[in-house]
């Protein structure tokens, strides 16, 4: 049983909830792409999906920046450097961002109509990002945050919390 998380880790964990809600929305839309409709409605559905993804990416970027600029560097050497869990977390950030980038790149080529299979292929990039991030958030919440809560000294946790507050403000 882990003791309660410090305010910094509680904040990072709490930021996952609104991200998860947005992820659920776009994932549902992505996996049902092509189930009904025609060539024009697929474009409308993809554009709607793109709006959801864009809103999500604004929140995700802020959250990721805090982890990558503040939290991950504090944990990097404590947990094995390039062979440790922080390297895995950073790689998952990159993987999810790459899926979103491929989605956005493919969306830039969408015209007024699109066939069902192409719509499904484009939306699949979003579904893949969802899978990566869902697993990523779970690992952070179940393993990384509790581990960091135990490994970091109180002064380090206070410093992390202070820096997260400064960055938000």
Automatic annotation (TrEMBL):
InterPro entries: Hemerythrin-like. GO terms for cellular component: plasma membrane. Pfam families: Hemerythrin. PANTHER family: BLL2471 PROTEIN-RELATED (PTHR39966), DUF438 DOMAIN-CONTAINING PROTEIN (PTHR39966:SF3). This is Hemerythrin.
């Amino acid at each position: 049983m882990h003791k309660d998380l410090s305010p910094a880790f509680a904040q990072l964990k709490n930021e996952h909830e609104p991200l998860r809600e947005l992820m659920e929305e776009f994932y549902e839309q992505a996996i049902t792409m092509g189930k009904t409709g025609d060539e024009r409605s697929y474009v409308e559905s993809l554009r709607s999906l793109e709006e959801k993804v864009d809103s999500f990416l604004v929140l995700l970027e802020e959250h990721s920046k805090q982890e990558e600029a503040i939290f991950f560097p504090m944990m990097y050497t404590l947990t094995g450097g390039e062979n440790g869990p922080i390297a895995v977390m950073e790689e998952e950030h990159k993987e999810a961002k790459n899926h979103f980038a491929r989605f956005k790149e493919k969306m830039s080529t969408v015209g007024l109509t699109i066939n069902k299979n192409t719509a499904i292929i484009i939306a699949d990039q979003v579904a893949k990002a969802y899978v990566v991030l869902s697993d990523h958030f779970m690992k952070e919440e179940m393993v990384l945050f509790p581990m960091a809560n135990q490994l970091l000294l109180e002064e380090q946790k206070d410093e992390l919390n202070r820096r997260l507050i400064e960055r938000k403000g």
